[in-house]
Each structure stands twice: as structure tokens, then as C-alpha cells.
Design goal:
- The structure holds two protein chains of two kinds.
- Chain A is of the alpha+beta class.
- Helix content of chain A is 23%, strand content 19%.
- The radius of gyration of chain A is 12 Å and the shape is globular.
- Chain A starts with a strand and ends in a 5-residue tail after the last strand.
- Classes of the chains: A alpha+beta, B mainly beta.
- Chains A and B meet through α1 of A and β6 of B.
């Protein structure tokens, strides 16, 4: 199972507490993880990626295994530790706003 | 006894204030959607417990919420706002062309007859409609595709469609306003549109009387006399007696004719309210005195309403969607400030008091009169 950590606003919106665990069949990439997340929680569609272009929203970042993966291609494999469920995949809100 | 429900959108959540018909004691619920910007929420006139709310943040974009129990519980509905076709470009702040990009919903206007139909005014300026209670949204693209679209430009707050007026006498007629393009009217249910800005004068555009480019801040009407429109423009308070075909200035003796809100008394179509703001560079009341101005003559002759409002050291703003009236007798008038106060008058503006005073900055105020 993939472990995914959402920022607080999205946990509230999806009505989840703590990490989200997702089953991803096939390659574990940003795209497949986020597709699985949105399939489980349709309310999150458009809040992480644009509805149409599927691009990451500008004020969000993707971290895992102490790396910033935000600029990696969406179909690039995520680290093995994420695929095994040993390490979570983080969706992080940029430090901005007031 | 009838009651009143005040729907307050703020920078950090929504709040719902309720009172009985006396309007003396208020219960406050919220924050709903804490931490999110709530640009607007509004109830259906035909099914008052059906509410729609526009929820957004810079991080996560747009969410639309719907309640069917007067705001006790909410359900997130559709948030996909996609312009029809290739949306083209509009004028940017520096005069270059810039692609249309959806940013947020500024205003939600439920239908006068169908609780499942609701209109959304968005930034970058466009009008969307849902006929399935907010699940899906479709653009009424005749507006954005108007031949003047490439000349529209954002105001300081963005290129927002912030005002949607539905005409109860002419079901196919609606009036919208955009900063900074101006006012537009459709007489065929939103399919085609025409600019209705004749008589407006704006010194910040190269041709001050141009067909479009005017920074209209808000427009209001009285439902019994919908051909009469009242407008608070960037500068100037204006009136139209022909559904927007022509406008004339009614600023009269106002201390400044800059401001954002404008509204009309529920039972007196010629009683109008504004909150003058010092200038476009100083968004606070003149002299640090928060004063509502009321005209009982449809404009030009204005009286300051001060009783209960701070008359020294007050430097809040009152944003364009942050004034509303109830339907009781005497008419109640309500407005919210960027300082987090919501002031109410239960006697048409003669006396005011804060019904809540420490909210986040208020973006919008809507009032429902309940049976």
C-alpha cells in the first residue's frame, strides 16, 4: 500500500484523518498515485492538479524520501521505499499566504 | 415569528448568523471551511435552506459547497470550470494581451425559480451556470466571446465577474458586471450580451467614455422596479432608468463617490445605500468615520447615517458584495468590514450595532428572511 500525506485543508475536505493508504496497480508514479487518490476521493479533483492539464497546482510540492520530486515528470517512478509503503509520499502546501 | 439568517463570507471561512424577527440577539455558527477564502455564499430564494458557497485558496483552487439544511451540513459539489473552446486573450495590466485563466468564483446567484439552477461569476471574467445543483458547470460563453473581450482588463482585485442580477419581471433578462470591463445585459437568457455602459465616464482609460473598460464595483436593483439600476463605480455613483441602456450620475452631496457596495431598501425602491470610501489609493472611510449614506430620493441627496458606527480612527473597507438587506418591516440593512465586523440596522439605517465584531476580513454578506 502506498502511504500518502495530505496537507490539512485537503484532509478536511476529504474527511480523512492521518495518512491515506492507497492500492496502486502497476507502476508507482506521481500520476498513478494521484489518480488512485482522486478515484477514492473525487472531492480532491482539481485541488492538487488542474482538472484539464493535470499539471500540479503552483503552490503545491511533492516530497518523498527527503527529496523534492515536484519537478520530476509525472510518469517517473517514485522511490522504491514509497512503492513498498516504507516511506510516505507528501503533498505539501508551499509556505505562502497569511 | 419570522427570522433572519446572515451569510458571511470571510478571508478565513464562512459564518452564519441567525436571529428572530426582532433582530436583537444573534447566534453565530462557524467557521465553516475554516482557513479557506469564502468569497460568497447565497441561498435559493425558492428553497431557503439550499445554500451555495464559493470556497477557495491559492493552494488548492476552487471548491463549491452546497447545503440543504440552511448551513448545518455541507457537501462539496462540482468544481470544474472550463471555458468553452479556446478562451483567447484579454488585456493585461500592462496593456499586453493575456490568456483567459480561471482563478476563482466571486459570486453565486441562485435562480429565482429553480433551486437546482445557480449562476457563477468567475475570475477571469465569465459566467457559468449549473442546472444540477452545482454538480456540473457550463459556461454561458456568449458573454466572454463578446467582440470587446480583448479590451477587458483586470482591476486591482483581478478580472472578476462579481455582480449577477436576475430580473424577476423578465425571466430571460440578466445584468452582470465585470471589473474592469463594465456592465452587460442579456435579454435572451445569457446567450447574447451587450455592453450597457453609455453615460459612464472613467478617467483611467484612454477614452473615458469607451464602450467597455469601466471598473464597475457593484450594481443593485429593487425587484419591483428592475429597470432602475443603481451602480457604485470605481468613482461615481450612477443610476439607469432604462435597464442600463443609459446612465446618469447621482453622486450628489456624497463626501466622496468612490466606494464598493450599493444596495436598495427592501420596500422603498428609491431608498439607496452606499458606504463612501476615501479614494482608489486609500481604501478606508474619509476622516476615519464609518458612515453609511442613504438617499431617499433615488440619488443625489444623501444623508449620513452614523448612529452606532465608529466615528473616529476607523480605517476598514467595505467590499463590493458585503452589503445586503432583509425583507422585514422596518427593513434591516447589513454590511461587513475588512476589520471583521458585521454591522446591522433593524430600522433602515437610522441605528446600527455590530452583530459580530471580530471575524476575519469580511468579503461578502447576504441576508435571508425566513418564514
Amino acid at each position: 500500500m502506498i502511504r500518502l500525506v495530505l496537507p490539512p485543508h485537503l484532509r478536511t475536505l476529504a474527511r480523512v484523518e492521518g495518512d491515506v493508504e492507497l492500492q496502486v496497480d502497476g507502476p508507482v508514479t506521481q500520476r498513478t498515485v494521484l489518480d488512485a487518490l482522486e478515484a477514492r476521493y473525487p472531492v480532491l479533483k482539481g485541488t492538487i492538479r488542474d482538472h484539464v492539464t493535470r499539471q500540479r497546482r503552483a503552490f503545491l510540492r511533492f516530497f518523498a524520501c527527503e527529496q523534492d520530486l515536484s519537478l520530476d515528470p509525472p510518469d517517473a517512478p517514485l522511490p522504491d521505499a514509497v512503492a513498498r509503503g516504507d516511506e510516505p509520499f507528501y503533498v505539501i502546501g508551499a509556505i505562502a499566504g497569511g | 415569528m419570522s427570522g433572519v439568517r446572515v451569510l458571511v463570507g470571510t478571508r478565513k471561512g464562512a459564518f452564519i448568523l441567525t436571529s428572530d424577527g426582532k433582530r436583537e440577539r444573534w447566534d453565530v455558527s462557524g467557521p465553516h471551511f475554516g482557513g479557506w477564502e469564502i468569497y460568497h455564499l447565497k441561498g435559493s430564494p425558492v428553497s431557503p435552506d439550499r445554500l451555495y458557497a464559493s470556497q477557495s485558496t491559492g493552494w488548492h483552487g476552487q471548491v463549491v459547497q452546497r447545503s440543504d439544511d440552511g448551513g448545518k451540513t455541507w457537501e462539496a459539489v462540482g468544481n470544474q470550470f472550463v471555458y468553452d473552446g479556446v478562451p483567447g486573450t484579454h488585456q493585461w495590466y500592462d496593456g499586453t494581451q493575456h490568456p483567459w485563466e480561471f482563478k476563482r468564483v466571486w459570486h453565486l446567484e441562485p435562480s429565482l425559480t429553480d433551486p437546482d439552477t445557480v449562476y457563477a461569476g468567475v475570475e477571469d471574467a465569465a459566467l457559468f451556470r449549473s442546472t444540477d445543483a452545482g454538480q456540473t458547470w457550463h459556461e454561458l460563453s456568449g458573454l466572454r466571446e463578446h467582440p470587446t473581450g480583448a479590451q477587458w482588463q483586470p482591476g486591482a482585485g483581478g478580472m472578476c465577474l462579481h455582480t449577477i442580477l436576475l430580473d424577476p419581471s423578465h425571466p430571460e433578462r440578466m445584468v452582470i458586471a465585470i471589473s474592469a470591463a463594465g456592465a452587460f445585459r442579456s435579454d435572451d437568457g445569457g446567450r447574447t450580451w451587450k455592453p450597457i455602459n453609455q453615460g459612464l465616464r472613467s478617467e483611467f482609460i484612454p477614452d473615458p467614455t469607451a464602450e467597455v473598460g469601466h471598473c464597475v464595483h457593484h450594481v443593485a436593483l429593487h425587484p419591483a422596479r428592475p429597470d432602475v439600476l443603481f451602480m457604485q463605480k470605481h468613482w461615481d455613483v450612477m443610476r439607469s432608468d432604462d435597464a442600463g441602456d443609459s446612465w446618469h450620475e447621482i453622486s450628489g452631496n456624497l463626501p466622496t463617490d468612490f466606494g464598493f457596495v450599493i444596495d436598495v431598501h427592501a420596500h422603498e425602491p428609491d431608498t439607496v445605500y452606499v458606504v463612501p470610501i476615501k479614494s482608489d489609493s486609500e481604501h478606508f472611510p474619509p476622516e476615519g468615520k464609518l458612515r453609511v449614506y442613504r438617499s431617499r430620493t433615488g440619488g443625489n441627496e444623501w444623508e449620513a447615517l452614523t448612529r452606532g458606527l465608529p466615528q473616529s480612527d476607523c480605517y476598514v473597507n467595505v467590499l463590493r458584495d458585503a452589503m445586503s438587506v432583509d425583507q422585514l418591516d422596518p427593513c434591516g440593512v447589513y454590511f461587513g468590514t475588512t476589520g471583521g465586523q458585521v454591522y446591522a440596522s433593524a430600522d433602515a439605517g437610522d441605528n446600527w450595532e455590530p452583530i459580530v465584531r471580530d471575524l476575519p476580513a469580511v468579503l461578502s454578506v447576504e441576508v435571508q428572511t425566513l418564514p
